[in-house]
Amino acid sequence: QSGAEGPVEVSANQAVFERDAGTGVYRGDAELIQGNRQLNADVLRLFTENEQLVRVEATGSPVRMREGKDLNAHADKLVYDLKRRRLILTGNAYVQHQGNTFEGARVEYDLNSRRMDASSEGDKRVRLVIPAANASQARNGDSGGEESQNGEGNPGEDGSSTQSPANSTPATAPENSTPNDAETP
Amino acid sequence: MRRPGLLSASGVILLGLIVMMTLHEWGNPLEGDNEAFLSAPAITAENIVARQFNRDSGEVEYRLLANNLEQYEREALTLLDHPDLSLNNGNNQWTIQADNGEVRDNGDLIVFENNVEAVSKNNGVTLDTRELHYLSGDRQVSAPDTVHMRHSEGSTRAGSMDADLDTGRMTLKQGVVSEFKGPKP
């Protein structure tokens, strides 16, 4: 729990609210802050439901997100699903978490389990880099979480790679990754 | 021998001058009295209830209450003390209150000043500002200064605001900061 679940503050140069659609579009140096989580973008599109902020769609060149010292991410587009507590980065997605870096056409990051799903699209392949320090720490029997069986990231048939950073093992980009259609949120 | 024509011509001119001076003096009483007359309110009224009807549909567009009213002919201006305006547009009802108000352009523009509060019960929005303009013909509301809004999802502050009462579209400018309550677990 990163302590970043409190109120959300959003700021920008200007905003347009659409009452019937329940949306607010913030433009120009748009920034979202929630605890130690910070998101910077050109445009933030906010969706509310039952008097609650449920979803934020950020677009930028790129969108940048930080969470304390642990998480540093950027992408062309980032969707923050507050209800399912997930981040979905698409378009040159890059996530660095506790030293491990994930790159791909699309990276999904679960804020509860800290699990990362990176998937490829077209010629943009998945790239996982786990520094040796993290790797040896994992080998020394950190328990818990998902463990890769064969020392590789778990290449699914669709070329995605699933990794739980806490106990990651050295992995190379899956050779047999087949392009899959990135799911548009 | 003097030529009679000349005498009578100068006599006529002299007489004409005297008549014009008399008329001028008579038509314009002392300048001070005239200014006092024109700058005094043409009408004053207390505890007033005014309604404006839509030219096409005939329905009440707005109902305006005020402690008292002063109407000035020359400036085509009506001053209100503690105006209270109720706007009714189907699912979009607003009430606007302030310390002072001005009605201009034959009721098409109402300016609210000092401690202005606008409330939309069904939208769950309360807005506070220093000055608010209501253009009844265009059904637009605008605030040239800082606005503070409380809405069901949280609160928002901006440097200026324009809203279209029919479409429910609100544009906030000159810096926007919103705070949304944290997601419910």
UniProtKB/TrEMBL annotation, chain B:
Q: Which GO molecular-function terms appear in the entry?
A: glycolipid transfer activity; lipopolysaccharide transmembrane transporter activity
Source superkingdom: Bacteria
Q: Name one Pfam family in it.
A: LptC
The record's section on Gene3D superfamilies has: Lipopolysaccharide (LPS) transport protein A like domain (2.60.450.10)
Q: Keywords, A to Z?
A: Cell inner membrane, Cell membrane, Membrane, Transmembrane, Transmembrane helix
> What InterPro entries does UniProt report for this protein, alphabetically?
LipoPS_assembly_LptC-rel, LPS_export_LptC, LptC
Write out the GO cellular component annotations. Answer: outer membrane-bounded periplasmic space; plasma membrane
Tell me which PANTHER family the record gives: LIPOPOLYSACCHARIDE EXPORT SYSTEM PROTEIN LPTC
Question: Do you know which NCBIfam families this protein is assigned to?
Answer: LptC_YrbK
Q: What is this protein called?
A: LPS export ABC transporter periplasmic protein LptC
Species per Swiss-Prot/TrEMBL record:
Alloalcanivorax xenomutans
Report which gene this protein is encoded by.
lptC
